[in-house]
Design a protein that fits this description.
The protein is α+β, with helices and mostly antiparallel strands. Helices cover 44% and strands 21% of the residues.
């Protein structure tokens, strides 16, 4: 976890003008998020939105038979709960803590009120949502057209961009659930990366040793997503 818990470690909060930040500062509540915890379930109305600091939350689609796949990752670059200000109030996805850490939460009613002020916050949230939609769309394309090796590299790079260090807490079983594949496939793909010296994996802890090797092995989908975040949120880049 990070050494401090300044709300402005979240880059959306950091990008807010001082006047708008003051409107919500008193409502921000620091919470610790444990791996595997669900922040909301499909169809559930959200009481809070979250601004992660050093954790990652996966947005998952859950099938009727229990199978799942991640459709997007949210970390310090963003906010969990975009349906609150987009008018839906709930989504068909689940938000599950992928990598544990600290987050600030804010009552959904407070966020909605601030959004309706039509200030910088609204502009940031709308741009972030467009970038998030790009990530979801590209994930669908990647899952259909690219190899598991490439998908794992994409997932690792997206995770790195949302964390303050090169260490990721994650079991191979959970990675398999997020990618919607068999655990044996993840074991094989992770083994290749370890042999190449790109990562070191030990009992649920992944250390990225050579980011360049991950970038060499990833498909085009990673760059599409990263470029869109950088274009839409130039002051909120997590990389």
């Amino acid at each position: 976890m990070v050494g401090t818990t300044d709300p402005k470690q979240n880059m959306v909060l950091a990008a807010l003008p001082t006047s708008e930040y003051r409107h919500i500062a008193s409502g921000l509540e620091l919470v610790v998020l444990q791996a595997g915890v669900s922040l909301y379930e499909s169809g559930m109305r959200m009481e809070y939105v979250h601004f992660p600091l050093d954790c990652i939350v996966s947005l998952l689609y859950i099938m009727k038979n229990g199978a799942s796949a991640a459709i997007a990752l949210v970390g310090r670059e963003g906010i969990v709960g975009v349906s609150i200000f987009m008018g839906g109030g709930s989504t068909p996805s689940r938000a599950m803590v992928q990598t544990p850490g600290w987050s600030y939460r804010l009552k959904s009613s407070t966020l909605s009120s601030e959004f309706e002020r039509h200030g910088r916050f609204q502009h940031l949230l709308l741009n972030y949502t467009q970038a998030l939609i790009t990530q979801m769309s590209q994930t669908a394309v990647c899952n259909r057209h690219h190899s598991l090796d490439q998908q794992l590299c994409r997932w690792l790079l997206l995770s790195l961009d949302r964390l303050p260090s090169n260490k990721i807490e994650m079991t191979q079983e959970l990675i398999a659930n997020l990618l919607g594949v068999r655990r044996e496939g993840v074991t094989e793909a992770a083994g290749k990366l370890q042999e190449q010296g790109a990562i070191e994996y030990r009992r649920g802890h992944i250390t990225v040793l050579d980011r360049g090797k991950l970038e060499a092995g990833v498909c085009e989908c990673y760059r599409v997503v990263k470029d869109e975040y950088d274009r839409l949120l130039p002051h909120v880049s997590a990389a």
